[in-house]
Design goal:
147 residues; alpha+beta; Homing Intron 3 (I-Ppo) Encoded Endonuclease, Chain A; two-stranded antiparallel sheet; 4 helices; 8 strands; 27% helix
C-alpha cells in the first residue's frame, strides 16, 4: 500500500536519525498531526501509512504526532489510546491534581493552597502577594500618567 503513494508524499517525509521517526514536513494541523490529500481524499498522514479502519485509532508509540513510521504506530481502540495518552487529558481525571506547582512556581504541598468556591486550587503565597503586585502596578501606572 505504501508503494502506491505518489512521489510528492515521500518528498514531505524526513527521517530523524536519532528517533527513526518519519517526520511529516507538509501541512501539520495545530494538534500536531500531518495531513495529506490522496486520491481526492484528505486525511491524517499516519492513517495513510498504517491503514487503520475508521472504527479504530492509531497510537503513536513514539509520542511524536507528526511521525508516520508504521513501526512507531499501533492500531488500538479508543479506550486504549486514551489510557496511553497524556496525563490529565483523560476523561474523568482532574488536571489540577496532576500539577505540582502554581503558575508562579510555588510548590503545591499540604497547607500551601486552598480550594476556592469554584473548586480550584489557589496558592496561599500568591494570594498574599497579589494585592502587593496590584498596588505596585497601580503606582507605576499613576507615576507614568503624571509624566
Amino acid at each position: 500500500m505504501m508503494l502506491d503513494f505518489p512521489i510528492r508524499f515521500w518528498k514531505k517525509v524526513r527521517i530523524n536519525p536519532c528517533t527513526q521517526c518519519w517526520e511529516w514536513q507538509g501541512y501539520v494541523k495545530t494538534t500536531g498531526y500531518g495531513t495529506f490529500r490522496f486520491n481526492g481524499k484528505t486525511g491524517l498522514v499516519h492513517r495513510f501509512t498504517k491503514g487503520a479502519p475508521d472504527s479504530l485509532e492509531i497510537d503513536h508509540l513514539c509520542r511524536n504526532r507528526s511521525c508516520c513510521n508504521p513501526a512507531h504506530l499501533e492500531i488500538v481502540t479508543h479506550s486504549v489510546n486514551m489510557q496511553r495518552g497524556k496525563p490529565g487529558r483523560k476523561k474523568g481525571i482532574r488536571t489540577r491534581n496532576l500539577k505540582t506547582h502554581c503558575i508562579h512556581k510555588h510548590e503545591f504541598k499540604e497547607g500551601s493552597f486552598y480550594i476556592n468556591k469554584h473548586s480550584k486550587r489557589v496558592c496561599r503565597q500568591c494570594s498574599r502577594e497579589r494585592p502587593k503586585r496590584a498596588m505596585e502596578k497601580a503606582r507605576s501606572e499613576f507615576i507614568n500618567y503624571e509624566e
